[in-house]
Amino acid sequence: MIFAPVGIRCPDHSGRPQGAARVTGSVKRASFEGTGALVTKALIALNVLVFLANLAQGASLGRNDGSLFRDGALLGQASFDGVSLVGVAEGEWWRLITSAFLHGGIIHLGMNMLMLWWIGAPMEQAIGRGRFLALYLVSGLAGSAGALLFTDPRVPTVGASGAIFGILGAALVFERQRNYILGGSALSIIVLNLVLTFALPNISVGGHIGGLIGGALAALALSRFGRGHAAYGRPGLVGTAGLVLIGIVSVAVSYWKTRGYV
Hints:
Layout: E1 2-4, E2 7-9, H1 19-32, H2 38-56, H3 67-72, E3 78-80, E4 83-85, H4 95-98, H5 106-127, H6 129-150, H7 161-176, H8 186-199, H9 205-222, H10 236-258
Helix pairs in contact: 2-5, 5-6, 5-7, 6-7, 6-9, 6-10, 7-8, 7-9, 9-10
């Protein structure tokens, strides 16, 4: 028997797919939502591969370099290491997202990837692959906007921490909606990481705060401002438009901040 909104129904009259149709639907859902944190693993692998490519281009374990770094780091406009570069202000918009896959050294990479696995895997398995990827990318854009807004756009900035803080921001919103993705510890993790953000040198404060805000807003959009469930409900037009709007605003803020450096 099936518990339908109008009462108990037999499988044939419940309005739900049965047999082969049910299996097909389950496979399609699994391909989008899935288990095993495949997107998180793919993101970690991509970050590691980019770092290895930088090493092949002449970077060291403690300092990034090479064409990938020069062409992909978050930058308004500057002369970096004697090489004249252009940046976001002159249309190189891809820096807003490629910078999230670059790191300044092996320690920077290791710490970010460890944190991404700790919090990204449970988030992905809770809200699904598609939603998680959208959350990650939007948070990365918001982190880039924050980095450009609160620091000198002429200084190269790299790292996945903006997107990672976005996951934490989303986890906090979901836990306020009683969806305890990180076991109710999202606020404690955020406070600890913010303390480290302000206490340690050479950390993009703006990138962390921008990603945190972007991720929280993305979580509100995915849950339709608390009216739906982030995992089981559909984002709908409001949720999708909200995610797109966060990305557009992030790009707009980035161009507004860097236009004075052209």
